[in-house]
Amino acid sequence: MRKRTIFYEIFSFIMVAIGACIAAFSIEDFLAPNKIFDGGIVGVSMLLSHFTGVRLSILTWILNVPFLLIGWKKRGPLFVARAIFAMTVFSVAVAVFETTPNVTDDHLLAVTFGGLILGVGVGIVLRYGGCLDGTEIVASLLAPKIHQTIGRQVLCFNIVLYLIIGLIFGWNQGLYSILTYVLVSVVMERVEEGFDAQRGCLIFTHEDVNLIKDKIYKNLGRTCTEWKTEGYIGGENRALYVVISQYELRQLREIMSEFECFITITDIDEIIGKNVKLTLL
Questions:
Q1: Distance separating alpha carbons of residues 136 and 145, to the nearest angstrom
Q2: Are 199 and 266 in contact (CB under 8 A)?
Q3: Which residues have a Cβ under 8 Å from the Cβ of 281 and sit 6 or more positions away?
Q4: Mean pLDDT, to the nearest integer, of 79-94?
Q5: Exposure winner among 85, 151, 188, 253, fewest CB in 10 A?
Q6: Which of 178, 61, 71, 186 is nearest to 120 (CA)?
C-alpha cells in the first residue's frame, strides 16, 4: 500500500509538471503576444509585466509567494509542496517559451486554441493536486467567513481584472480575455472532472461525528446534516451528509483519511433553497 502511495505521489508530481508546461506554452505562444490576459494572479502578472518590463516568469512566482505562505497553515505542507513545484515548473517553462516565436497573430485563433490548451494544462495541474494561482488559496480561507464559495470569489476578482484590462487596452482586448477565461473554465472543468461542480458526500462512521463536523467546517466552511443509521452487520452508527465543490473533494479525502468511515460521493445537478450556504454559480 505504501509503495502504491509513493508511486501515486511521484506520478502526481510528473502530471503537475506536464500540466504546468502546457499552461506556460499557451500563455507565452498564444495569449501574451496578442495581449489576451488570463485571470487570477497570472493575469495580474501579465498586466504588470506589460507595464514594468519585468519578465512574466519572475512575476508569476513572486506574486504567488505570499499566498503559498498562507496556504502552508491552511492546506498543509503537501499541498504547498505541490503548489511550489507547479509554480516553479510553470515559471521556468514560461521563461523557456519566452524565447520561442508565437504561434499566431490572429486574435480569434489565439483565444480559441490558447484557451483550449490553457484549460487542459490548468485542469491537469488541479486534477493532480497542484495549484498555479494563489487566488484560490485566499478564496478557500475567506469562504467560511464571508459565506461565498471559492468559484464565486475568483469570478468576482476576475470581473474586476477584466474591467481594468478593458479600460487600459480597449474593450476588444477585454472581451477577448473574457472569452478566453470562459473557454479555459469549461475545458478545465472537463479535464479536472468538474472543478466547481457540486458533490454530495454521504459519510457513515462509528467515530466522533462532532469532531468530523468541526474539521469539515473549519477547513471547508461547510456544515453537515447528521442522523442515526443502522447497518445490517455494523449495527448502529452515524451518517453525515455534506455538499462540497469538486475543488474541495481532495481536502475532504484528506480530512476523512484520519477517521474510520465509509463514504459515497454523487454528482449534484442543482441546489434549490434560500438557506443553502456556499452554493456555487
A1: 15
A2: yes
A3: 149, 151, 152, 155, 196
A4: 88
A5: 253
A6: 186
DSSP string covering 79-143, please? HHHHHHHHHHHHHHHHHHHTTSPPS---HHHHHHHHHHHHHHHHHHHHHTT--S-THHHHHHHHH
Whole-model pTM above 0.70? no
Helix (H, G, I), strand (E, B) or coil at 280: coil
Q: What is the mean pLDDT of residues 191-195?
A: 60
CB atoms within 10 A of CB 280: 20
Residue length of the chain: 281
The conformation of residue 248, written as its DSSP 8-state character, comes to G
Other beta carbons less than 10 A from residue 147's beta carbon: 11
Which residue do the cell numbers 502546457 mark?
22
Amino acid at 256: M
Candidates 3.30.70.120, 3.40.30.10, 1.10.3210.10, 3.30.2350.10; CATH matching 198-268: 3.30.70.120
How is the chain split into domains, by residue range?
Answer: 2-191, 198-268
Tell me what the pLDDT averaged over the chain comes to: 82
What are 2-38's pLDDT values in tens digits? 555 788 788 889 999 999 999 999 999 999 899 898 8
